[in-house]
Design brief:
mainly beta; 11-stranded mixed sheet; two-stranded parallel sheet; 15 strands; binds N-(2-thienylmethyl)-2,5-thiophenedisulfonamide; binds zinc ion
């Protein structure tokens, strides 16, 4: 079957054909209608806490759908806020658009940001690994960080420096200079949280989303580097009808929140 992607032929509006969950009622991303958000004292009473081991960022890979930094989960942990138990970091990656007026997956009161960073965690209190956790409603938690155009982001620059060596699908390389995921998070830790899904096929409805309110800055040049990734393998012809197979856009448009609760913590 033709591999899913982000073009007219294989993009988000075609995914439900091969991945029926993509048509579910607990899908992500969503538009954050800030007027709908309810503040919840139980969230305020259990501050979100994380611990990452920068030396455990192992490899960066071109998945064909973007770049992804795979992490050795050991030593990491995310607890508190809406979470029961302990979650461990599995990987982090990003979504962007063909120009900086769009590219984030979540929108806030209808406003898109230039990109969105996702730190993917799995419930190590209940499941053996990320793959198993992805099949359960409380299996995964993704920390989302909205990226807006501004100053060059020094921590993300360590990722950008590696992009030329993973220009084509399937290419991967060691991350030699440790990347600290904690340094990519905003200063203020206010967030929105709701129950959703993976934003790529198989779109498992197993994600507790935690989206920070404060955007983090990234430069236009850094966004341009993301768009230089190719969605096809070296030596193969370009399958996608994207301008010479460049991954210029890899965000899923928003889905309805429906009857789901949207909670917030912090102003
Ligand atoms: N945009 S997002 O944060 O929702 C992600 C996209 C892909 C993710 S994954 O690489 O963790 N695969 C998820 C898995 C599927 C099956 C076993 S695990 S998480
Ligand atoms: Zn993502």
């Amino acid at each position: 079957a033709a591999e899913w992607g982000y073009t007219k032929r294989n993009g988000p509006f075609t995914w439900a054909k091969n991945y029926p969950t993509a048509a579910g009622i607990r899908q992500s991303p969503v538009d954050i209608d800030t007027a709908l958000a309810t503040s919840d004292s139980s969230l305020e009473s259990k501050p979100l806490r994380w611990k990452y081991v920068p030396q455990n960022t192992r490899t960066i890979v071109n998945s064909g759908h973007g770049w992804r930094v795979d992490v050795d989960s050991e030593g990491s942990e995310l607890v508190g806020g809406p979470l029961e138990g302990t979650y461990k970091l599995q990987q982090f990656h990003c979504h962007w658009g063909s120009s900086s007026d769009k590219g984030s997956e979540h929108t806030v009161d209808g406003q898109s940001y230039a990109a969105e960073l996702h730190l993917v965690h799995w419930n190590s209190s209940k499941y053996a690994d990320c793959g198993e956790a992805a099949d359960y409603p409380d299996g995964l938690t993704v920390l989302g960080v909205l990226l807006k155009v501004g100053a060059k982001n020094p921590e993300l620059q360590k990722v950008i420096d590696l992009i030329p060596s993973i220009s084509h699908r399937g290419e991967k390389t060691e991350v030699k200079e440790a990347i600290d995921p904690a340094k990519m998070l905003p200063k203020t830790l206010s967030y929105w949280t709701y129950l959703g899904s993976l934003t790529v096929p198989p779109c498992n409805e197993s994600v507790t989303w935690i989206l920070f309110k404060e955007p983090v800055e990234v430069s236009e040049e850094q966004l341009a580097a993301f768009r230089s990734l190719r969605c096809y393998k070296r030596g193969e012809e370009c399958p996608c009808d994207e301008v010479d197979g460049l991954l210029i856009s890899n965000y899923r448009p928003t889905l309805p929140l429906g009857t789901r609760e949207l909670r917030e913590c912090g102003s």
